[in-house]
Design a protein that fits this description.
The chain is mainly alpha-helical. Helices cover 72% and strands 0% of the residues. It contains nine helices and no strands. It is globular. The termini are far apart.
Length: 192
Amino acid sequence: KYAEKISLEKFALILIVITAFFLRIYELPAKFFTAETHNIFNGLRLHTLDLFNFSDHFSLNFFKSFFGSIAGLRHALSTYLSSTVYGLLGIPLNEFWLRFFYVSLGTLCVVGIYVLGRMLADYRFGLAGAAILAINIDSIARSRSDNAGITVTFFVLICLIALFHYKENPTWIRRTVLSAIIPVVASMESMV
């Protein structure tokens, strides 16, 4: 009976994740909006700047450009992360693949909600939370565009999962790592 419950739980989670992915990828827009193009440019431009050029002008300084963006840290960080991952994997950097990064993060958020719900209560609570997030219109819309909201949601979920995981055995290194992560997430301006 226990094995049957686990297989049913896995089947339900896989079905929810496939549904979430399909809803996010279905009719994905091919072109960026003007605001999205501006946000993406700020993140991509960071690859051309030297890392340790603190005395240079704002437009030539990596850290000043990264932390001083008018749009905020979340847009630059989101595009910089996705373009770095694609560069390492050799995936072409075009509009579809940049959007696919957000679709993937949105789908991973559904899995993260399941993990968080399971940590807080039980597997049914996790499956219910994952199902709600999978079909949530706002989450689907955030996963289909470069507004970086889904990136913030993903980082918040990672922080919460880590906090609940390490609450039983808090060591100084775990507290230090979490203390470094939380301000980065808080600096992304928009807690979802």
